[in-house]
C-alpha cells in the first residue's frame, strides 16, 4: 500500500521534464496519468503475489493466496484487469502516446513478475518499470518527449538504474551476509545524487529552484544513508529489509529533486507523496 504513493511522483517528474523543454499541458492530464500509474503499480503487486503463490505456499502461509482468503485465479484476473484499466485511462487523458507508454510499463511488469524475477535481466526489468513510468509522465504533452534534449531523456535512465540496484539488494534480502548487494544499492543511490547535480548544471534553474532541488537531494541522502549503513554493517534480513523500504520511499525525494529544476511547485507536487507513503509504511510493509 505505501508503494502505491511512490508511483505518481514518477509521472510528475516526467511532466516536469517536458515542461523544462517548453511544452504546455493541463494539470488534469498529469493527474489522470498519475492515476493510471497507480493502477499499473497495483496491478503489478497483485500479479506478483499471483505468480509467487507456489513459493508463498511453502514459505509465507499468511499471505492472502496461500491462506485461502483470495484465489490465485482471482488475483491474476484483478492484476491483468488493473493493467488494462491503466492503459485505458492513459489513452483517454493523453491519447495514443500515453497508451503506448502505459502498455510498455505493463509489459515490463509482467516480464518481471512472471519471467525474469531473480535473474540479471529481472533487475533491469523492474528498473524499467520506473523509468518507463517517468516517460509516461512526458506524454502529458503528447509526443513532445521525442523532441526533448538528450539531457532530459537521461533522467528516466537514472531512475531505471537506481531502482535496478535497489531490486538487486532486495532479491538477496533473505540470504544474510551479502554486503555486496547492499553496496550495489548504495552505489546506485550515490550515482543518482550525482546525476541530480549534473542535471541542475545542465538545465540551469533559478537560484531558488537550485536550493530546493539540493535540499531534496540532501534529504534523499539522509533518508537512505542511515538504513544502508546499518545493512552494510550487519547484512541480515532485519536490517536489509528496512534498507529496501527506505530506498523505495526515497525514490519520491529523488523524483522531487529532479522535478524541482522545472519549478519549485513541481518538486513539491512530487515530494508531498512521501507523507501518505510514510504514514502507511507504519501499517503495511514496504517492498
TrEMBL record:
Keywords: Membrane, Transmembrane, Transmembrane helix. It holds the Pfam family UbiA. It is found in: Cell membrane. It is a multi-pass membrane protein. It comes from the Archaea. InterPro entries: Prenyltransferase_related, UbiA_prenyltransferase, UbiA_sf. GO terms for molecular function: transferase activity, transferring alkyl or aryl (other than methyl) groups. GO terms for cellular component: plasma membrane. The chain crosses the membrane at residues 99-116, 152-170, 182-201, 207-224, 236-258, 264-284. The keyword Transport does not apply. This is UbiA family prenyltransferase. It comes from Natrinema zhouii.
Amino acid at each position: 500500500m505505501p508503494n502505491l504513493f511512490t508511483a505518481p511522483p514518477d509521472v510528475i517528474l516526467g511532466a516536469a521534464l517536458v515542461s523544462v523543454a517548453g511544452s504546455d499541458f493541463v494539470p488534469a492530464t498529469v493527474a489522470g496519468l498519475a492515476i493510471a500509474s497507480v493502477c499499473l503499480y497495483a496491478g503489478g503487486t497483485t500479479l506478483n503475489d499471483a505468480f509467487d503463490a507456489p513459493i508463498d505456499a511453502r514459505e509465507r502461509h499468511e499471505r492472502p493466496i496461500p491462506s485461502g482468503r483470495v484465489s490465485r485465479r482471482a488475483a491474476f484476473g484483478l492484476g491483468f484487469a488493473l493493467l488494462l484499466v491503466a492503459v485505458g485511462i492513459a489513452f483517454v487523458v493523453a491519447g495514443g502516446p500515453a497508451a503506448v507508454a502505459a502498455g510498455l510499463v505493463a509489459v515490463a511488469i509482467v516480464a518481471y513478475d512472471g519471467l525474469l524475477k531473480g535473474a540479471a535481466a529481472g533487475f533491469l526489468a523492474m528498473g524499467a518499470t520506473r523509468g518507463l513510468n517517468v516517460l509516461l509522465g512526458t506524454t502529458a504533452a503528447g509526443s513532445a518527449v521525442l523532441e526533448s534534449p538528450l539531457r532530459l531523456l537521461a533522467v528516466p535512465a537514472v531512475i531505471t538504474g537506481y531502482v535496478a540496484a535497489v531490486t538487486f539488494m532486495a532479491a538477496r534480502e533473505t540470504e544474510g551476509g551479502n554486503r555486496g548487494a547492499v553496496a550495489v544499492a548504495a552505489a546506485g543511490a550515490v550515482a543518482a545524487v550525482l546525476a541530480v547535480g549534473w542535471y541542475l548544471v545542465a538545465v540551469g534553474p533559478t537560484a531558488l529552484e537550485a536550493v530546493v532541488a539540493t535540499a531534496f537531494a540532501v534529504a534523499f541522502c539522509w533518508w537512505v544513508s542511515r538504513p544502508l549503513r546499518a545493512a552494510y554493517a550487519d547484512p541480515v534480513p532485519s536490517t536489509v529489509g528496512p534498507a529496501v523500504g527506505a530506498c523505495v520511499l526515497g525514490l519520491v525525494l529523488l523524483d522531487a529533486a529532479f522535478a524541482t529544476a522545472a519549478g519549485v511547485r513541481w518538486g513539491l507536487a512530487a515530494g508531498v507523496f512521501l507523507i501518505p507513503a510514510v504514514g502507511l509504511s507504519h501499517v503495511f510493509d514496504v517492498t
